């Protein structure tokens, strides 16, 4: 182990802040008014009920049209699942929602705000993967402290109130035992739990999860999704998650969007998870999802 020095610790802290700066959503540069070509019409639901509104969103990456006019409205308090094949634009859509991906055109509103800078403090975002330098010496406790305003000026000190808050947050995700582990030494599933805690510490109203079970061993996936569903219920959050696990989507989602560059279909899990809808989204014949009353997923539950 490297010898500890205050100078090295401060440098380490600065490096980690720079790394995790990418984890937090930041407002994009203002979209030119000329790009906002979609007129805003009155919706049948009250605007106060809408957590996320996306209108005619278009994104091109590397000369390829990834999003080709996506429209969706996410209602407060729902657990919304985004499904679709690899490359269908699910991650790009989440990144555009939090300003990490600038659109070619279209409009994103969070809680009715077109100015994302005002709305983003109410949002927690967990990316699909986060590469960590194995030389980072921060513990999970120290990493989580970066998220709290009251720790910014005494990073290397311990305060009981903050410790109690971090311990309770980790316990909710079943990860309290990880607090003193080096964050760079965590497994993929352990890191995902820590990142969700990191996102929840500011008590967001909207939580965006991009394939939250990436890196989680198959036997632990069901427990992981059950934990997310419990967090959704307990905190009365709006949760949007990208998932390929159709059994999870069927059990827990309030609403489902099937995406493949555009929204192919939307509705309740029962409505979306039929052969015609899945064929439209995935572009091939797949076995429709049939719910069973036992704990494991169906053989045809993962459309690829």
Explain how this protein is built.
- This protein is of the alpha/beta class and 304 residues long.
- It has a domain at 77-91 and 122-282: Rossmann fold.
- It contains ten helices and nine strands.
- The protein has helices at 6-21, 90-97, 116-119, 140-145, 160-172, 188-200, 218-235, 246-252, 269-272, 275-282, and strands at 50-61, 64-75, 79-83, 105-110, 123-126, 206-210, 238-242, 255-259, 263-267.
- The protein has a six-stranded mixed β-sheet, sandwiched between helices.
- A hairpin with a 3-residue loop joins β8 and β9 (263-267).
- Residues 1-6, 26-44 and 292-304 have low confidence and may be disordered.
Helices and strands, in order, run as: HEEEHEHEHHHEHEHEEHH
User: In the CATH hierarchy, what is the superfamily of the domain at 77-91 and 122-282?
Assistant: P-loop containing nucleotide triphosphate hydrolases
Through-space gap between termini: 43 Å
How many helices? The count is 10
Molecular shape: globular
Q: Main sheet, how many strands, which sense, barrel?
A: 6 strands, mixed
List how many beta strands DSSP finds: 9
Radius of gyration: 20 Å
Main sheet: which strands, in order across?
5-6-7-3-8-9
β-strand percent reads: 15-25%
Examine the coordinates and then state which fold CATH places here, giving the name of the CATH topology of the domain at 77-91 and 122-282.
Answer: Rossmann fold
């Amino acid at each position: 182990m490297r010898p500890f020095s205050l100078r090295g610790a401060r440098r380490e802290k600065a490096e980690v802040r720079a790394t995790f700066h990418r984890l937090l959503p930041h407002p994009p540069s203002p979209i030119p008014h000329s790009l906002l070509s979609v007129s805003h019409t009155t919706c049948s639901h009250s605007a106060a009920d809408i957590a996320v509104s996306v209108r005619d969103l278009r994104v091109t990456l590397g000369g390829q049209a990834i999003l080709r006019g996506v429209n969706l409205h996410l209602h407060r308090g729902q657990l919304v699942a985004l499904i679709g094949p690899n490359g269908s634009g699910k991650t790009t859509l989440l990144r555009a929602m939090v300003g990490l991906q600038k659109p070619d055109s279209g409009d994103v509103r969070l809680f009715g705000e077109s100015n994302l800078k005002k709305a983003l403090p109410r949002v927690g975002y967990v990316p699909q993967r986060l590469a960590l330098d194995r030389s980072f010496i921060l513990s999970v406790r120290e990493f989580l402290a970066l998220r709290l305003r009251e720790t910014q000026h005494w990073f290397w000190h311990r305060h009981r109130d903050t410790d109690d808050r971090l311990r309770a947050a980790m316990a909710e995700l079943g990860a309290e035992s990880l607090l003193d582990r080096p964050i760079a030494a965590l497994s993929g599933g352990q890191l995902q739990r820590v990142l969700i805690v990191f996102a929840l510490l500011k008590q967001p109203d909207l939580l965006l999860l991009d394939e939250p079970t990436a890196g989680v061993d198959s036997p632990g996936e069901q427990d992981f999704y059950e934990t997310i569903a419990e967090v959704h219920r307990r905190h009365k959050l709006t949760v949007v998650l990208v998932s390929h696990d159709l059994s999870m989507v069927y059990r827990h989602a309030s609403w489902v969007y099937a995406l493949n560059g555009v929204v192919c279909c939307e509705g309740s899990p029962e409505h979306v998870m039929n052969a015609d809808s899945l064929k439209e989204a995935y572009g091939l014949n797949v076995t429709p999802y049939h719910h069973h009353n036992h704990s494991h997923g169906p053989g045809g539950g993962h459309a690829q």
